[in-house]
Amino acid sequence: MKKSNVQKLYEISFYFLPISLLLREHWGSKAIILFVFLGLIASVKLLKESLFKLLKIRWYIFNLIHLFLGMLSLFYSSNWQAGIGRLSFSLLFVLFPIFQLTLFKKLGTNRISLKMLRFFSIAIYCYCILILIKLLSILMLTDSTLLDIKRSYGYLNFNNIYEYTEINSMYFSMLLCFALFVILDSTSKFLSGWSRIVSHIVTILVTLIMLILIDSKVAYLAFILILILFLYTRNISRNIKILSIGLFLGLIISTLVITPPNRIRRFIEAGDTTRVNNYVSSVEVIKNNYLFGVGYGDELDELQKTRKLADKVDNYIIKMEYNAHNQFFETIIGIGFIGFTPIFVLIIFSVMSALKNKDVLFQSFLIVMCLFFTVESVLVRHYGFLFCSFIWSVFLTYNIGNSQKVIDDKRSIFNRLQITNIFRSR
Predict the structure, then answer these.
(1) How many CB atoms lie within 10 A of CB 336?
(2) Which of 186, 6, 32, 199 minimizes the C-alpha distance to 114?
(3) Membrane-crossing residues (predicted)?
């Protein structure tokens, strides 16, 4: 059946919205606003029905509670302008499910969500290849060494490679680890024999090279866990699984322990004092504001006050004005344990749902997200809150038919088609 212009608009919005993660932050923010409003305006009549449908779903109610408590915190925050920015994740996590459910009703299929994840993952790896080609050309056309390349372009930012992007490498490694599982899972479906093996090897090698360049400890851990999850969920013999996992672990150990990069060597010798100091400061702030928090927008100010009063603190941390570097701490500092409870319940619900439905893609997403939450305040920048709110809501929204009793409504396209979990293992 030929698609209407509205259907094409919805598909374009759905495919390209995550790609804005690779754009410069002000471009990406404008792209978010554009795609969301294009999608919502395209079918105003269905929005009311979608919203009422979602209001009967438990996880969406917790979404709304989290947003409401965040908005309340602005009343006792002395920096409510910055606090509004902190609401971006909560607000998008409320808007995206409406957009996604309306999309399903308009197109009559939820297969588009799986196509979007593959499109997004392919885009991530195309960007990786562009970076590697650029670095290889620099290496060949100049007198630079591999160490020079690492010093100039490694670890923090890629904005000195291409003008259209400035994504922080920590955030990019989070996207890359999730995209790794999506690509491995997809090639397992569509390829066979040597073509599948070669595709897997190339994907893993490209990922490993990028992670060595980025040099993030948590990204290495996510990489290992993603590969273990992938092998565990494959229909192959136990001996091959054990052998493959052993090879991956051996490769990582030889890379990180025998010949460790500078940051890993520094961590082994002295520990990560920066994050330890951040966590100590965060706990001190939480002790004094554990119930309602300090209010969205005041997190950094309170952390800086605590750091300046501490007996032992790295002046570099004060100068750089680091945030909590832990999303759980960041949320509790902002809106207290009361505000943190809804998002914690959402994580537990998501884990239970992913395990119950054997949704391996959802499991891989949760592994990556929760790992990075422990070492980075992921939701304070547009790369983090867009990735988490959009992809997380995709999994939850298109899993409604399995995790909740569908309301009996004969007029609902959603109910007539009896959605099944598109991510369930074959």
Answers:
(1) 20
(2) 186
(3) 27-47, 59-78, 84-104, 116-141, 161-182, 194-212, 218-233, 240-258, 328-348, 360-377, 383-401
Helix axes 169-190, 193-214, angle to 10 degrees: 180
In a domain, 80, yes or no: yes
Q: Which residues pair with 157 in a beta bridge?
A: 168
Higher pLDDT, 312 or 292: 292
- What is d(CA 114, CA 81) in angstroms, rounded to the nearest whole number? 37
* pLDDT above 70 for 315: no
Are 338 and 69 spatial neighbours (Cβ–Cβ below 8 Å)?
Answer: yes
- For 18, phi then psi, to 5°, come to -65, -25
The H-or-E segment that residue 83 falls in is helix 80-86
| Counted domains in the chain | 1
Residue reference for tokens 């449908």 = 53
29 is a domain residue? yes
Write down the H helix ranges in 142-271: 146-153, 169-190, 193-214, 217-232, 238-253, 262-270
Asked whether 284 and 306 are in contact (CB, 8 A), the reply is: yes
C-alpha 367/C-alpha 178 separation (Å) is: 9
Residue 275 lies in a domain: no
The closest of 153, 119, 164, 183 to 22, measured between CA atoms, is 164
Looking at the domain assignment, is residue 89 inside a domain? yes
**pTM for the full model?**
0.83
Q: Rounded distance, CA 5 to CA 2, Å?
A: 10
- Can you tell me the mean pLDDT for 262-274? 58
What share of the chain has pLDDT > 70, as a percent? 63
Q: Report the amino acid identity of residue 159.
A: N
CA–CA distance, 97 with 109 (Å, rounded to integer): 15
pLDDT at 332: 92
Instruction: Give per-residue pLDDT as tens, 383-406.
Output: 888 888 888 988 888 754 333 333
